[in-house]
Amino acid sequence: MIHGPRLENAALAAPLVLFLLALLGFPTLLDIVYSLSEVRFETLRAPNFIGLGNFAAVLTDPEFWQASWFSLKFATLTAGAECLLGLALAIYLAPLLRRHPWLLAILIMPMIVAPAMMGLMYRLVLHEFIGPLPHYLLSWFGDSPGFLTADNVFLTIFVIETLQWTPFALLLFHMAYEAIPGDIREAASVDGTRSWRMLTRIELPLMAPTLAIAFFVRFIDGFRVFDNIWVLTGTGPGGSTTSLSIYIYVTFFRSGDIGKAVAASVILFAAAFAMLWLAARQLRREDA
Fold it and tell me: Domain spanning 60-287 has what CATH number?
């Protein structure tokens, strides 16, 4: 029998568990059924069970692996750039933000804009025929790069994503930097510790958990990116900007291959769950 705190914990967790089962249980069961069936819009109510055929079709599809590589590369590079820029800005602007905290509200404004709106805005700004940036570059310098061509599109979306979400890292790192006790810095200063050594040996190790969390959050968000890239470039020249989310969307709505699309989403969910589990396990080890 369950007694004491365990019974109390189970009672407290029961409403949340029941809510999650009611909210996610049926869609999850339906996804599993569709992922194991041949189903299109015409046969949505009568799927034909084919076992693991959809998973085999996904795993042997070169476009799936191209989308997986794009998502992994995009997520790693953007998360790393956002964290590096956010950390540099948080440390460099710390004295100014202490005197004028309201400046932080201005600095985080880009991340308030909906990603789809950000993609639409840059689509208009960078359009080679009507965009103001190519127009002025052509007028002033006699030439303008094709920002959305196959050669430059990845760099373009990388810069756009980094500019929009660096404020998120800045906000986290600023809070972590300001949370470092002042007496630690004073004691280090009294011992003659210089600024660079204080940063690398004292401040950054204290901020390490926040750095790891920020990178992980931004990696997950970059890995599942959809709306801003879809609005800006779609699948891109030759499918060069097809993320896993875009691959699933195109397979589902354009190709109408619902079973294959759902199987790809199950694989994506399994990969995300594995990463979350590994991250949680690592955090538990560090706490221990």
Answer: 1.10.3720.10
* pLDDT per residue as tens digits for the range 15-66: 877 887 777 777 788 888 888 888 888 887 888 888 888 899 999 999 999 9
CA angle 239, 231, 82 (to 5 degrees): 85
Q: Are 232 and 160 in contact (CB under 8 A)?
A: yes
Which DSSP symbol is given to 145?
-
Cα distance between residue 116 and residue 229, in whole Å? 8
- Amino acid in the structure at residue 133: L
Sign of the alpha-carbon dihedral angle for 90, 78, 250, 123: positive
Residue tagged 């990969």 (tokens): 271
Of 206, 224, 223, 182, the residue nearest 87 (C-alpha): 206
Domain range annotation of the chain:
60-287
Cα distance between residue 197 and residue 174, in whole Å: 19
Would you say how long the chain is, in residues?
A: 288
Residues 236-249: pLDDT tens digits?
888 889 999 999 99
Beta bridge partners of 38: 48
Coil, strand or helix: which one is 130?
Answer: coil
CA distances 205 to 6, 21, 199, Å, are 36, 40, 9
Residues contacting residue 248 through CB under 8 Å, at least 6 positions apart: 261, 264, 265, 268
